[in-house]
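Structure ticket #2291
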Amino acid sequence: MCKRCKFKFKEPLGKIITCNVVAFNDKDGFCILHSKNENKDPKMFEDAFKFKFDKQEKEEDEINFNSVTFVIPIDFSNKSFEKKIIFQNCKFLSEVNFSGCEFKGEVNFSDSIFEKEVYITTFQPKEKINEIKYTTFYEYTNFQKVTFNGFVNFTNARFEKEVDFNSSKFNDITYFCVTKFNSKADFNSIEYQGEFDFKEARFEKEADFNSSKFNNEIEFFHTTFNGETRFNSIKFKENINFQSTTFNNEINFSNSIFQKEAIFEKTNFLGNVINFSHAEFKDKVNFIDIETLAHTSFDFSNSSFYGRALFRGKEKRLFKNVEVDFSSVFVDSKAPIDFNSVDLSKWIFAHTNLREFRFSDVKFDEKDGRLSLYEKLKDDINESRKNNIFEKLYRELRCNYENQKDYFHAGDFYYWEREYKLKRLKNKEEHSKDGNEFILFLYKFFSGYGESVKNSLISLGFLWLYFAFVYMPSENNFIIYSFYSFINFYNFNFLYIFDTNFTFDFFYKPLVNLESFGKALLHSLQVMCFVRPFDESDKILQFNNNIWFLTAEVIQRIISPIFITLLILAIRQRVKR
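Resolution: structure written out below.
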């Protein structure tokens, strides 16, 4: 009695599929198709395969070659499959060719192994890539946990429904050039050992490369992603190229590691959210002439840069009106970040060290006519912490620009550094008990933190005039007469305003003593500049025995150097600018 093939397979719905074909030999108990013997007779295998294939194609609802070890090349080029195709858990020891095919039913190659080349499309010279007759998959296509050990070519293929490469391995060169994915493309947890090329491919729906391993170079040159795209938690061990790639939807690179160079030149980021948070760039990364929209937001928070990073706009400033979260970013001091022709007016730099950044032709936000940072924080924190954060950021920016000898912009950042320090000291939690808050307030009021020549001149001029009034003899003192007349008016002597005495007391009498006031001005200037009076016998200044005026002189001699110093510092800053 002939033994029957002992192969059994349980379908997902629980149905048990048996073979029942005469066994190939008595040793393994399997038929010529299901036998794992890689040395089985190729002619016998070919005859059995053709017989079963023709029978299933004519009589059954699907073509099923589950768990078959193929010892012959498979060539179905330009064939149309009307039914569901199952090559699950198969092993292909020779070349496989499906170029130019039409798969109108579902296709299942899950858990299979391809030892040699796989041609979903026949390879052609790249200059004729658009002339290739493409292979079309009209229904769900399953390549889960497939291992490709040879060259794989999906060039110009068309996937009309979802395609699933989850957990598959590509160990040689793989081409998906000009491939079109019209539904979800799942490349989650795949592993690439060979070169991978998605040049000019098009993803119309969701594309998922989450948790994959790229162990060789990968090309996404001129690729288009129209759906949500995920490259998060990936380790790129070699160069990756996204030059001229278009992302029309959300893109996620969070928690990914770029071991070698990453190129984003002329890349179009047109989605709402571009996420590079917690990413690590171990080598060079270039964001050159990228295209963004006003509603786009970038997230680089908690990312790390160990190689040179370049953000540069050649034709126009990058990130115009785009909010970018660059908070808590680590930058290696040996490989600073270059910002060349970049709009930084909506960048969040909280907890990022800005000392080593290189700024050239950048645009910051502006407030009260001075350059400033985008004063927004991602986290909801109290006012005290906010003041601390921005004080530190402005200090780092000021040091950065001073190191570049750009004192013009350094002055703006120094002003805001002092401003946030004053806010911090005013805060109840950090209220200064040693008077620093009051001193800083005066520093701002009289000289704009040493940055305003105008404020310093006005303050010094006020000091000069004030003490000039003080030094006038009491009988001719403008302040005394004006105050006296004003008091009379406010004592409800309303008729006094029409009296000629009011006009004489309030206006005329001080004016007839201009000579006295002029000499008082001169004396105030002499005291302020530590110059002895030119005419000590002048009666207009005979108040040396008056303790009030002697005290005023002492006070002016103490205060004047402070105001003069503030003016000199402000002029120095202006000259440096």
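Closing remark: The chain is about 30% helix and 20% strand.
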